[in-house]
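Async update (no meeting this week)

Hi team, since we skipped the sync, here's where things stand on the single-chain job. The sequence we agreed to prioritize is pasted below, unchanged from the tracker. I ran it this morning and attached the output directly underneath so nobody has to dig for it. Comments welcome in thread, and please keep replies under the output.
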Amino acid sequence: MKTLAAVLRHRGLPAPYAQSKPLVIEELDLDPPGEGEVLVEMAAAGLCHSDLSVINGTRLWPLPIVIGHEACGIVREPGKGVKDLREGDHVVFSFLPTCGECPMCSAGRASLCEPGVLANRAGRLITGGIRFRSAARETVHHHSGIAGYSQFSVIARESIVKIEADVPMETAVLFGCAIMTGVGAVVNTAKVAAGTSVAVFGMGGVGLSVVMGARAAGAWPIIAVDRLASKEALARQCGATHFVHCGEGDMVGEIRDLTRGGAETAFEAVGDEHVIAQAFGATRRGGRTVCIGLPHPDRILTVPALAFAAEERVLMGSYMGSCVPQRDIPRFIGMYRAGLLPVDLLRSREIRLEEVNEAFDLLDRGEVARQVIRF
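Output:
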């Protein structure tokens, strides 16, 4: 069958992307689903910094590639061997497929699934296949096993989570990355306790989701940090009790004053080694710094070595919110339904697929939380 998709062929083209146009809307051939795979019609896809990292060359996925890793859709054809999904089911995707059998999955750490990581790095489905072809019969890779910026996609069953049909698609899409990553970092990775202090660096879609998760966990105070003062109002709507503008004064000192010595948990949701060091400096003795953002792989972090032994500080990573998607996406949707997660606040605007390059300019400038492509 034919599908329209946003294809990245050249990484590192300069901003503004409205002019350089790194993403080209192309008609591709899409093979039918193989065994253990599902044909899905996309309903919505989010624009995330991880997608921007593929465009600017921070994340070196194979090219050409249909990008987009935060998405939701409707099942149109289950492939052979898929018994628990049927045509018309509403689904959200996990940007790391989870095999359920490797040492990490067996230990309950599905976000570190080893076959899933290898498949993503190769631009393939975890089943081994590549289902997109250009008009010239050129192989076009899948981003994170999803390829969300396509009208239709073939996706492995291991990447799919079924959801209730009454969840609006423009909301459901956010559970595929922003909410899973941000809220998961709070409840799974850091296990934030009620009444403990939290600082969150970076008020993009993931950072705002961390703020939501911290409020749901009962943290206090919840300090939002961003370089744009315009992010304060939205951060407070999501649950922040304080806002620190990192372009003014001694940011780390201000956080330490607000928390009487430093935050008990700091989250970095920017993907910059300097911000990680600032977050680490803003924690107290015994505090934890949780790294969520994805810096360029060549960047090196420098922090005081003595702080680990002498002050029992902890520096830890969180990928995909340390989530088990089949467990956590329905759980977080339940929290949304209960009014604990104001997820709809994240949606900045809806766009058409053809507007994707211009939309990445807004994301690159930090002016939006989540833009959502509607198909």
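Quick observations from my side:
DSSP finds 13 helices and 18 strands in the chain.
Residues 2-176+342-374 form a domain with the Quinone Oxidoreductase; Chain A, domain 1 fold (CATH 3.90.180.10).
Reply here if anything looks off.
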